[in-house]
């Protein structure tokens, strides 16, 4: 790719951002190196095809300066659109979504000379999921009883479905087609609640630490089970086994213990279970409202964690009596950013995303290994999404 290509000096069409309440997600296109056989640029009919891959990175929103540095050093400089003093010559436009596209617009303009071309958050989420389901094989999977099973997506029988995006808060969107959707519900008890309460209750400093703790915990220490109330037996008449949770954190009522008397790992486990269970149940109720059988769960709260996925799946399975299916997505946390990225294709004189090489995928860490990203002065958390091989049409 010619870095001095004028398109790239007015629009960074290979970068999209989703700036949420907790995390900033970046999707960017990294062209294959010139020395790479399949990294060639094909020019014909006034259209050049650049092969490469979509890469993913995330930053905590509270550490937005790291994100600005990453874009400055790894994306703007790489694209040849930046002065050495760190500011851009021309006004650069970048697709951005999420609340931060509004909140931080002035900051990006001032620090990087980037102007946000804003995309609606719900619209971006839906575009992102539809893109993944239609173009990336082995994207969606079910998780039940410790078994992960990839779901074959029938393009002619994809809609309607329920999208449950678990970010800081939770949005539930009924999707009826490309660009046809309605946000039918939501709950403020989401990933932010898990992390916020978790920090207060366990003194954990980070999400990863809280997850790690929860691995080692036992929720039965704090949760009040049906068996605790029923003297060890099931309440089979209404379908509740003795091990079902009757009341999350309910044992704390009568244990006579202070917070310090509980193991933080047990608290973390109960919290994770409570939030996941509740979201699974609300999702099911909304699916029931509209007769939806398929529920896709996204958002960074899930993080591919088995316990979370299992809890959500069991909740959906239990309440729907096996009628509805919970499904998860490999690029769960990047739905909005991907949707914003694909929206470049709606414009003339911009890019069209043409996925190819569907079966070839590399770990995103690879992105920092190749020639184009040899000098990465700022570390991003790039290990959460797998890169997607694709080509971009520059029309
Ligand atoms: N490394 C991490 N740091 C902080 N939170 C994380 C991390 N990894 C996963 N999470 C979880 O993911 C949630 C954020 O998910 P996501 O990025 O999808 O939402 P968001 O866009 O920030 O929020 P919203 O859409 O509500 O504005 C956090 O609240 C937390 O529960
Ligand atoms: C406010 C948003 C959409 C921001 O991403 C999200 O955090 C959310 O859906 N919160 C839940 C709000 C509610 O429906 O109660």
TrEMBL record:
One GO MF term: ATP binding
SUPFAM superfamilies: Actin-like ATPase domain
Any one GO BP annotation for this protein: coenzyme A biosynthetic process
Keyword Cell division in annotation: no
Enzyme class of the recorded protein, top EC level: transferase
GO cellular component, one term: nucleus
Coiled-coil region(s): none
Keywords: ATP-binding, Coenzyme A biosynthesis, Kinase, Nucleotide-binding, Transferase
E.C. designation(s): 2.7.1.33
Pathway assignment: Cofactor biosynthesis; coenzyme A biosynthesis; CoA from (R)-pantothenate: step 1/5
Domain of life: Eukaryota
UniProt KW Transmembrane keyword: no
Catalyzed reactions per annotation: (R)-pantothenate + ATP = (R)-4'-phosphopantothenate + ADP + H(+)
Signal peptide: none
NCBIfam families the UniProt entry points to: panK_eukar
Protein name: pantothenate kinase
Biological source species: Brassica carinata (Ethiopian mustard)
